């Protein structure tokens, strides 16, 4: 493999590709529903994608010393495949691109997109070490549907249920996402809310918060829920209860984390399937 190819792969790995791709796909599916033109949906999706790149790269840049301390050889900065300085530059470039694209579909949309970006960046910079570690996730995920709707064209305003469901999805995903890294974080003095609650409590809470997001998505939109939405909700609640119970009785198991991720995925599907993202 050429040096350039190796660095491209390292840069891709430093984006936190799975969550970055999931959030971008989520935004794309919502944008297709609400955008008044294909071009608008494309710009909104590109803005979210660039924003996710900036958040992922800034995370690995800012955490480079911590990752070296705990021997995270899976991190490109630790293995030496890419330097923190390179990630820092890339993060700021991607941040600028996302900001420009966000304002390209409207002032309100641009401000909402800035809120999403601020959530990710402030978490990386400071909030992850505090009891308010959940707050940037609530803000970013709550504002994501607001950005998509505002950027869709016209004078559309996001429905309140979508903001609340997004915020709950973000908080639940944060708590669940931290579970595999609790020990490494403790070794480097990271003390976010899940760390303070402890593994058992966090393992139980994560799927339950996500289940609350599922219920909001089921009850929020106007009209009678479809059979599909009902089935998705029942399945999400069943998985959440199972994950919560396992979190209490087997906190060291990966099952609570995996089940929480499954509930988060179902919640995303529910939001997309619900439609009705625009306030009447």
TrEMBL record:
Official protein name in the record: 4-hydroxybenzoate polyprenyltransferase
InterPro entries per UniProt: UbiA_prenyltransferase, UbiA_sf
Keywords, comma-separated and alphabetical: Membrane, Signal, Transmembrane, Transmembrane helix
Keyword Transmembrane: yes
Signal peptide, first to last residue: 1-20
Residue ranges of the TM segments: 90-119, 131-152, 158-180, 201-219, 231-249, 256-275
Organism name: Isoptericola halotolerans
Locations listed in the record: Membrane
Membrane-topology descriptor: Multi-pass membrane protein
Pfam family, any one: UbiA
């Amino acid at each position: 493999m050429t040096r350039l190819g190796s660095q491209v792969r390292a840069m891709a790995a430093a984006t936190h590709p799975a969550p970055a791709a999931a959030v971008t796909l989520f935004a794309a599916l919502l944008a297709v529903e609400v955008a008044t033109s294909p071009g608008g949906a494309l710009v909104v999706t590109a803005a979210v994608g660039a924003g996710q790149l900036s958040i992922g790269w800034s995370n690995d840049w800012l955490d480079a010393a911590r990752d070296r301390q705990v021997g995270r050889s899976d991190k490109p900065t630790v293995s030496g495949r890419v330097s923190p300085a390179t990630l820092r530059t890339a993060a700021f470039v991607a941040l600028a691109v996302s900001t420009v694209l966000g304002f390209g579909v409207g002032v309100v949309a641009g401000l909402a997109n800035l809120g999403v970006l601020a959530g990710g960046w402030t978490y990386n910079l400071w909030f992850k070490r505090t009891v308010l570690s959940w707050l940037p996730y609530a803000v970013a995920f709550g504002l994501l549907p607001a950005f998509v709707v505002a950027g869709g064209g016209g004078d559309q305003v996001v429905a309140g249920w979508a903001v609340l469901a997004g915020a709950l999805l973000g908080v639940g995903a944060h708590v669940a996402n931290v579970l595999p890294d609790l020990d490494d974080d403790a070794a480097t003095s990271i003390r976010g809310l899940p760390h303070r609650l402890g593994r058992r409590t966090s393992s139980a809470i994560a799927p339950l918060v996500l289940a609350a997001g599922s219920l909001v998505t089921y009850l929020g939109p106007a009209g009678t829920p479809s059979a599909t939405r009902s089935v998705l909700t029942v399945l999400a609640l069943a998985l959440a209860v199972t994950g919560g119970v396992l979190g209490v009785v087997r906190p060291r198991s990966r099952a609570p984390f995996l089940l929480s991720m499954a509930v988060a995925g179902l919640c995303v599907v529910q939001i997309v399937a619900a439609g009705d993202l625009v306030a009447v």
